[in-house]
Design a protein that fits this description.
Helix Hairpins, elongated, five-stranded antiparallel sheet
């Protein structure tokens, strides 16, 4: 047994009686011989009591640590009862804790697997701050979680939730890095305006995108399909009436009808493709894609059109182009649309170039790949350039329909590049040609450097 506790307890027990005897000796009340005997007796008593109490306290500590009733054999009065009550209290608390730990682990697992973003907002210095977020929130918003709280609609909902007894619900829209529609629920965890708030964000972009897609599809389809459909109906009525039995007229009309039907088919295919891309725009692709392979495949697909237009394609691909995070199908469609436009609207017998540049550069400071599709056609007047990516916008409607354009190609390019967190730029000079530029980031980290979709349009005189 350590000697220090024994000495300490002995001093505590014997100090006051010893001081009292010394005082009596000094005052002459007690005979010196009796005083010495008293001091010796006090020392022996305090040493023995200290030894016993130190032993009991050591055993008491072991009993508490082990929560065991086997060692409750103390000489010190009352220590048995004290130890028994303490052990019973500890046992009850341990049982509670043993029940709470699995429940807490299950609750944490539920929060970690929750598909919606969940944040805890505490008040710090008069403002609410994000002090915790679940993995879904980290994946959806990353380091920008605090920026969410600056949204006007969410800020007003937080103020309301601090005083409301019931959860506060609000719908908000985010414009960056891609448009998103969110349903927010704010729940106060306790009474009082300073109590923690929990914010649950559910992404409703897909569902509302589907609603908008259906509305846009009906509106756009009815508008764009009306002309070829009216034409088809007119030719059918003519073939049934005045041209019935006229073989030459029938062949001519059937050829026109086939062209109109093919046009309707292209419009519907492009509308469906655009709607699918818009529906997925808020979810960046995760696959690894070789942009060099994509561009080579697109060049191969377009070989028949190049031959018909007597156009030469120059494809410049440096060795060792790194892979991108992307959707190979959508990137193929992007560069097919751009190359198709460059060939059809470029100079017959001219040259179309595809050039690639690794970034960062002075204009593009983020790591990525810049792909330029350049033609030597008539170019585009500057007033048309900002609207080129609008649905069904055509600079020359007659020429567009003649070459088989639907007015949706660049809209598809814009939204597909946006989904890849890239940039789409158009530069054009009249009577010189047009350059369509697509920049794609090398890795998901580059996305954090963009504050919005950066769908840029630059002009040249």
């Amino acid at each position: 047994m350590p000697s220090r506790p024994v000495i300490t307890i002995t001093v505590w027990l014997g100090a006051i009686p010893a001081l009292a005897i010394v005082a009596l000796l000094v005052s002459g009340v007690v005979h010196p011989r009796l005083g010495v005997i008293g001091l010796i007796g006090t020392a022996l008593w305090s040493a023995g009591a200290g030894l016993i109490l130190a032993r009991d306290l050591a055993a008491f500590r072991r009993s508490i640590e082990d929560a065991s009733l086997d060692q409750l054999h103390f000489i010190t009065p009352g220590l048995n009862t004290l130890a028994l009550n303490a052990i019973r209290a500890i046992t009850v608390e341990r049982d509670k804790l043993n029940r709470l730990v699995p429940a807490a682990a299950a609750n944490q697992a539920l929060l970690d697997r929750l598909p919606d973003a969940l944040f805890r907002l505490d008040r710090e210095g008069g403002a609410r701050r994000v002090v915790w977020q679940n993995p879904s929130a980290e994946g959806a918003f990353g380091a920008d979680a605090q920026a969410l709280l600056r949204h006007p609609g969410l800020r007003a909902a937080i103020v309301e939730a601090e005083m409301a007894e019931q959860p506060v619900r609000v719908s908000i829209g985010l414009a960056a890095p891609v448009p998103r529609d969110l349903d927010a629920v704010l729940i106060r965890a306790a009474d009082g305006p300073g109590a923690p708030l929990f914010l649950l964000l559910s992404d409703r972009t897909r569902e509302r995108g589907l609603d908008r897609m259906r509305q846009d599809f009906v509106a756009n389809a009815s508008h764009e399909l009306r002309t070829p459909l009216t034409s088809l109906i007119g030719f059918i009525e003519t073939l049934r009436g005045p041209a019935a039995g006229d073989a030459e007229a029938s062949q001519q009309f059937l050829g026109i009808m086939a062209e109109q039907a093919d046009r309707m088919q292209r419009i519907i295919a492009d509308l469906l493709s655009l709607s699918r891309i818009e529906m997925m725009e808020h979810q960046p692709p995760e696959q690894r894609v070789s942009i060099a392979r994509v561009l080579k495949e697109v060049a191969g697909f377009m070989a028949p059109l190049l031959d018909r237009q007597e156009t030469r394609l120059e494809l410049a691909l440096p060795d060792g182009l790194p892979d991108l995070r992307g959707d190979a199908g959508q990137l193929t469609q992007v560069f097919t649309n751009l190359l198709d436009n460059a060939i059809k609207y470029g100079k017959r017998g001219g040259t179309v170039k595809i050039e690639t540049t690794l970034t960062p550069t002075e204009q593009l400071p983020l790591p990525g790949i810049l792909i330029d599709v350049i033609d030597d056609g008539l170019g585009i007047a500057r007033e048309h350039i900002p609207r080129l990516t609008e649905r069904f916008y055509r600079v020359d409607k007659g020429r567009s329909r003649t070459v088989g354009g639907t007015g949706l190609g660049l809209a598809i390019v814009k939204h597909a590049v946006s989904r890849h967190r890239g940039r789409f730029m158009i530069e054009s000079s009249e009577n010189i040609g047009t350059k369509c530029r697509v920049w794609l980031p090398l890795a998901p980290e580059a996305e954090k450097g963009l504050t919005d979709t950066q769908m840029m349009v630059t002009r040249k005189g």
